[in-house]
Amino acid sequence: MNESLISPFNITHPTTVQTSLFALASFARFDPTGRYVATARVDGTAAIWDLDTRAAVRILDGHVKAVSSLDWSRYSRYLLTASKDWNVVVWDLASTCVPAQRCATLRFDAPVVSASFHPRNSRIILALMSTGEAYLVDQRKAHRARVELCEVQEESDDEGAGTSNRVRSAITVARFDPSGKHIFMGTSGGYILVFNTRTKTMVARHRITGAGAIKGLEFTKNGRQLVSNSADRTLRQFTVPTYPPPTADDEYIEHELEPTHRFNDPINKTAWHAMSYSPDGEWLAGGAADTATHKIYIWDISNEGQFANALDGGREPLLYLHWHPSKSSIASTTNQGNILIWHCPHPERWGAFAGGFEELDENVEYEEREDEFDIVHMPLPFSIPYDYLIFLQEDEADMIRRKMKEEEEEVDIDTVPEAAKPREIQLHGVLPSDEDITWADEEPDDDRQNWTMRVIMEEDWDI
Amino acid sequence: MSNEMDVDSGDVPPQVVGTDAGPSPAEENDTPGTDISMPQQPPDDSPPQPQPPAQTGPNYKIRYSLSGHTMSISSIKFSPDGSKLASSGADKIIKLWDTYTGDVLRTLVGHTEGISDIAWSNDGDYLASASDDKTIRIWDMKVGTEIKTLLGHTNFVFCVNYNPNSNLLVSGGFDETVRVWDVARAKSLKVLPAHSDPVTSVSFNHDGTLIVSCAMDGLIRIWDADSGQCLKTLVDDDNPICSHVRFTPNSKFVLASTQDSTIRLWNYQTSRCVKTYSGHTNRTYCLFACFTNTNGKYVVSGSEDTKIYIWDIQTRQILQVLEGHRDVVLAVATHPTKAIIASASMEKDLTIRLWYDNSEGA
């Protein structure tokens, strides 16, 4: 809502640090509303910070070992934390208990390196073990299951010895795409595997030439673009193909994906810790795995992927970064546990303090409209008594008439302008009545749009 | 529906006026015909003459008259669900009333000086009060206790409001500053050197990104809530003292009451006044103005001629005048969902009145 007053054409990438939160965090992620960041700490606790007050508003103590990953549900009501203590804990933030109580715990047989909610239903959870196995856990009554997602092995091999003896390569990354229809997984062998979430069958296998082990995958909000981070220290952006619905005989597509862009640091050859797209998908931020400085590289996707800027966040090396879901803001985490909130500052306009003035960058010759200062004679509105008007100067009476006429115009005081509303994004590959979407929407959780986290008024805060 | 008049307002015998119980002398003018008449016109700014009552126009009638305060009532606010009404006064107390029965539910005592303004949090669990004792206090309305005191203002605190998320409070006062507070931690986050005279009104817009403030210096300022930067200043040519300001429900305009007996609707993008509402009297006090769109879109304001005025938002005509109070009507409040108006008056009257629009069957 404030954008129109600040400057409507100024939405760009962040440039400077706005604030630093001393959170002892190993990484931090914005919630879908952008009001909070969730932070994970090595001692096994997670915390939620309110960006308005810049204070921790919830402490979630549920793990005995470091939190390895966390994810927000669609409308921010649920948060999951995954940990090296073999557990995934789901928190319901509607509860105002202090200390916070977990609402579900999933136990696994190995340390959990990452876990995420299905984008449409927090009761479907994808978890990845440090042993390289990925599980899809469905907690809904009608679908209750825990399924391991296994790469299909070729039975009849064209090339003979090459792949038949191949050890099943470990899965290193597992993520839902933004619609939740597919699960994308990166393997240590440099493949991206695509699974259908509903049928849990593999629908595609993409070889990424020269990449080595896949370390990370990130999507744009609409799911059209995908960026991978891999052992060869290069970020590759791909256009996500459209996958046909899964067939009964478990066929899959074997296809090599060719990146549309490659991003790397040609001089220092730094690796990347994390990457994140801007909400409109026009910028990509990469967090450099530099051991001495805190560097964020920004590429302009809308402009052929050109390198746009390198942000310097000081001496504390970067561990993680995440772009705000709607604003030009980034949260980056330092190895000292501080969270830097980056923004794009607007210059203070001192002219705003004076009423009726507008600041100009340079002199403008004012050209009056043809009739701007003309006095137009109109019939008097019946509502102004005649004897009142005769005391006024003629032009003054005209001014009143003009003003009255202007005020006849209808005003709309209730409808929120479209631009200020969150936009419904057309997700890639989603059909109007999509079977996979209906499946995910069965037995929905209690996460509703416009859900707000209640403020806990605590006497003493122990952070 | 009309005979539920047995009201017990607790400590003070209630004065209850029923719609069907025959008008008491003070409410004799409440027949629809005389409601619309405008006995005194301020000579200097003649508004459009009111039209005869249209079938669809407002038809508010008194339902309850609540007594309990012992000094001027400064502010009244409906809870977000509309079930309760909170009132504050110069007698240092806050009272909580049941909107539908008129019962006193609670009296909150704690401030050491008079209270100027109160505000509900969006969940209705908390109430913030701004007082001449230079503090803002947060009350837990479930239990009825004070849970936080916000210290920082160096003079009387005059106005207070929550943001939509209710994690922030904004306040203004006679120290000429606008302050933004972290409610849960009772900590001042921002002090804006906003005005050069006492700040009379301050509030957030519907998504919490903007703050609007106005002051006795006659300026209306719009601030970026996040950075605290001033984004816009609205000023009328004659610079009248500005006593109340609020955003429209969609935040496209601000409604500002000024002490030249005028309420203006400003388009703050273009700095133009798009509507002018007049006919009431406002020269001395900071009167509240409200929107209601329960069965018609109106602007509602109290007046120093002891009446309450209801204007049509678009035509700017006075549609109804509510008479009955015996002193200046400082505060008015509109129910969030039903056609109910609450009004409160000063020393010579000391009542809160609840007006129901029967045509809606409320």
TrEMBL record, chain A:
The cross-references to Pfam families, in alphabetical order and at most eight, read: WD40 (PF00400)
Q: Where in the cell is it found?
A: Nucleus
Q: Does the keyword DNA damage apply?
A: no
- The WD repeats are found at 30-59, 60-95
Q: Which GO terms describe its cellular component?
A: Set1C/COMPASS complex
Note whether Metal-binding occurs among the keywords. Answer: no
Keywords in alphabetical order, please.
Nucleus, Repeat, WD repeat
Q: Which domain of life is it from?
A: Eukaryota
UniProt-listed PANTHER family: RETINOBLASTOMA-BINDING PROTEIN 5
Instruction: State what protein this is by name.
Output: WD40-repeat-containing domain protein
TrEMBL record, chain B:
**Cited InterPro entries:** Beta-prop_WDR5-like, WD40/YVTN_repeat-like_dom_sf, WD40_PAC1, WD40_repeat_CS, WD40_repeat_dom_sf, WD40_rpt
Instruction: Supply one GO molecular-function term.
Output: histone binding
Q: Which PROSITE patterns match?
A: WD_REPEATS_1, WD_REPEATS_2, WD_REPEATS_REGION
Q: Where are the WD repeats?
A: 66-107, 108-149, 150-191, 192-233, 245-276, 293-321
- Give yes or no: UniProt keyword Repeat: yes
An example of a Pfam family matching this protein is Beta-prop_WDR5
* Positions with biased composition (Pro residues): 40-55
User: What's a single GO CC term here?
Assistant: Set1C/COMPASS complex
Q: Give the record's keywords alphabetically.
A: Repeat, WD repeat
Region called Disordered, residue ranges? 1-61
Identify the residues that the record assigns to the WDR5-like beta-propeller domain, covering every copy.
66-355
Query: Any idea what this protein is called?
Result: WD40-repeat-containing domain protein
Origin species, per record, is Mycena alexandri
Q: What is the lineage of its organism?
A: Eukaryota, Fungi, Dikarya, Basidiomycota, Agaricomycotina
